[in-house]
Design a protein that fits this description.
This protein is α/β, with parallel strands linked by helices and 213 residues long. It has one domain: Flavodoxin domain (Rossmann fold). Helix content is 41%, strand content 18%. It has six helices and seven strands. The protein has helices at 16-31, 52-62, 69-86, 104-113, 158-168, 186-206; strands at residues 2-7, 36-41, 90-94, 120-123, 126-129, 135-141, 173-179.
Amino acid sequence: MKLLHIIATTRGAESRTLSISNEFLKTLKEKHPHVQVDELDLSTTELPPVLDTNVKAKYLMMMGGQLDDKTLESWKKVSEMAEHFISYDLFLITAPMWNFSIPYILKHYIDVIMQAGILFSFTASGPEGFAKYEKMVCITSRGSDYSPGSHMHAMDFQEPYLRAIFGLAGIEEIHFVHAQPMDIAPGLTQAALEKAKEEARQMVDKLAITAQV
C-alpha cells in the first residue's frame, strides 16, 4: 500500500499546516509500518505548463486524434504526472487556505493531472472516476474560523472544491482536518493547532487501513 503526500505549502519546515501532517504521518508509521510514504513537494517540483501545446494535445486526445512529435513530447510530461498520481492507494494533501481556496501550486498540479482517459472518463451517464477505491486526507490551516454555522463558512471554497475535483477522479472517501482560526489571537492559534494535531493522529484509525501491502 502506497501513500502520496502532496505538499502545497511554500513555508517548508516553518509551515504550521505541515506540522499537523507530520503528526498524521508519525502515527501512520507507528500503526501501519507497511505503508510506503512518498512525498511530492509542489514548491520544488517543476510542473508542466497547461498552455498552448498541452491544451491542444488534451482536446486532440479527447477527440481521438493523433499527436505529432512535438505535441507528444509535451503531453508525455502531463500524462506521466497523472499516471504517477493514480498509482497510489492513499493521499495526504497539506494545503493552507489561500484567499478562501487553495494555493496556486496545488491548483496547477490538479490542472495537470486531472486528465480524461487517465483519472476519469466520460460515459453516457456522466463522468466516471478511476480512483474509486482510494482514500484521501486533506490537512489545512485557515486564518479565520470557516466551520459550519460561522459567519465565514460561506467563504470556504477550499473544502468544497477539493471534494468536487477529486470526486471527479472517483475518490469518495475524503477526510478533512482543519486548523482554525490561526490568525486571530495567539491563544486561539495554539489551541487550534493542538486540536488539529490530535484530530490528525486520530484520523489514522478512521481510514481503516488493512495490513495488505
